[in-house]
Design a protein that fits this description.
- By secondary structure, this protein is mainly alpha-helical.
- The chain has two domains: 292 residues, no CATH class; 53 residues, no CATH class.
- The protein is 66% helix and 5% strand.
- Strands 1-2-3-4-6-5 form a six-stranded mixed β-sheet.
- Strand 5 and strand 6 form a beta hairpin.
- Helix 12 runs parallel beside helix 14 and helix 14 packs antiparallel against helix 15.
């Protein structure tokens, strides 16, 4: 699904496994980290990772796109299997941030910055990062860190009590030396705790390296991409800029660790294994799409000049042309039509054609290309299905309502917490005159967006028109009686 950023603050404590299929969603970090990290450490680990607006909202800007998600799934699933994490348990989620970074906060999600995807020259570099993060998950590092934090919080409290006691005693006796000693106990104790925590983080990073290389060997892939990534950032952690070098800050690279990594990578029998040309092309198309949709057109045209006639370059220029305004629509439409002529079975060319037409206020014309994109996915692309349903509803033609409802029901069956699908389904039901079903769907959409109070209001209204005890009535009742985790 083409990428269109907008901010929605979501405070639901539910696992953020879905977001607006054509929007950036800000998931509340308090929800994501509540069960993962103590508040005092969140700032220490994440400082510099988020753009300023997101940091102020305490949110995480996630984007969704079918093409990119399927590629990352192909990169990761063999790694996750090798790590003993099964398939479908862990998802790679895309964070809209230009810094090169990736991180985990639980055992279910790997968060990958768009900056990593754009800056990584090969699939192997991204796969190496995923393997490293899988090492953290398989090693239970977040659980160990939580345990360490809980222990250190108790220790810090005792140190603070001792320090406060010394300061109070100094004040009562009029002794400045005793009072100063109390302050020293507090400062020194906190420093010792942070040193211990840093040492544990470094140990975990080294363990994740070795585990990641094991997974790469098990899947007959080179560790060179992982090595390239860490060599790129070695030495930057002491001088890192808060936004540009987030990976170096959150993945400290000690000299001995890097030497060990070089040795292990160099002795792998798969050291010289290269990514297939087909996978490299998909990677380059992903980078082009991200650039086209998320960077200024002038930057895109400079990075992908007209002299470059490759598919990725044409893809990026086509998207950037559409976004530049002032005649850009016709230029973008001509570009995507040329891409379709050369590769008629590429679903993502049809998808962006439909997207251009829909955004240009021509939903009726957007329907055929979006249908074609979904057909090429054999109907299994919920994000494209939601956009097709939106185009159908935007025509304001009653004959399209049933098709839209069918598409949206399939989307929420495939992604049960897709807030946008529920909200669009609410509109489709409203157009059909099915008000209780409309209000329930909107309640579900608001719930997964994190607007619990509004969701409960809609659920109460829905219940009035629903049969007591029916499945829909029970769904509304669950929302009404939901109590946020504390």
């Amino acid at each position: 699904m083409p990428i269109y950023p907008r901010y929605v603050v979501c405070s639901t404590p539910f696992n953020p496994s879905s977001s607006d299929p054509k929007s950036m969603i800000l998931f509340d970090l308090r929800a994501v980290f509540r069960a993962a990290l103590a508040p005092g450490l969140v700032a220490g680990l994440l400082i510099g990772l988020l753009p300023a607006p997101a940091a102020r909202a305490q949110g995480l800007p996630l984007i969704r796109d079918t093409e990119i998600e399927l590629l990352l799934n192909d990169y990761s699933q063999s790694i996750f299997r090798a790590a003993g994490l099964g398939t479908g348990r862990v998802t790679v989620r895309i964070v809209n941030n230009e810094a090169f970074n990736a991180f985990v906060v639980d055992g279910r999600n790997v968060f990958m910055h768009t900056g990593t995807l754009v800056q990584a020259n090969t699939p192997n570099e991204v796969i190496g990062v995923i393997a490293h993060e899988a090492g953290h998950i398989a090693g239970g590092h977040m659980a160990a860190l939580r345990s360490r934090i809980a222990k250190d919080q108790t220790r810090a409290l005792l140190i603070q009590l001792l320090g406060i006691g010394a300061m109070i005693g100094g004040a009562a006796s009029g002794s400045q030396e005793v009072g100063s000693a109390g302050q020293g106990v507090m400062m020194g104790g906190n420093e010792l705790i942070m040193r211990g925590l840093t040492a544990e983080r470094r140990s975990q990073e080294s363990a994740a390296d070795q585990a990641g290389l094991k997974y790469l060997n098990a899947t007959q892939q080179s560790g060179l991409g992982m090595l390239i990534t860490f060599e790129r950032f070695a030495g930057q952690e002491l001088f890192s800029d808060a936004h540009k070098d987030a990976f170096a800050r959150t993945h400290p690279v000690a000299t001995d660790r890097l030497a060990r990594l070089r040795q292990l990578v160099g002795t792998s029998p798969y050291y010289n294994t290269k990514d297939s040309p087909e996978l490299q092309l998909r990677h380059d198309m992903m980078r082009a799409k991200l650039s086209g949709y998320m960077e200024a057109p002038s930057i895109v045209f400079n990075r992908y000049p007209v002299s470059d006639t490759s598919f990725p370059a044409r893809y990026a220029r086509t998207i950037a042309s559409f976004r530049q305004g002032a005649g850009g629509f016709e230029q973008g439409l001509a570009g995507v039509n040329a891409l379709i002529r050369d590769r008629p079975n590429d679903p993502y060319f049809w998808e962006i054609k439909g997207d251009f037409l829909q955004k240009a206020g021509r939903p009726q014309e957007a329907i055929p290309p979006l249908r074609k994109a979904l057909q090429l996915h054999k109907g299994d692309a919920p994000l494209i299905g939601v956009q097709l349903a939106q185009a159908l509803l935007q025509t304001k033609e009653a004959r399209h309502s049933d098709e839209a409802i069918d598409l949206l029901r399939k989307a929420v069956a495939r992604e049960p917490d897709n807030a946008t699908a529920y909200n669009t389904l609410g509109q489709a039901y409203y157009d059909k005159g099915l008000l209780p079903q409309s209000e329930l769907a909107r309640a579900q959409g608001l719930f997964y967006f994190g607007a619990l109070k509004q969701a409960q209001e809609f659920a109460k209204r829905a219940q009035v028109g629903l049969k007591p005890g029916s499945p829909d009535w029970v769904k509304a009742d669950d929302i009404i009686n939901y109590k946020p985790q504390t």
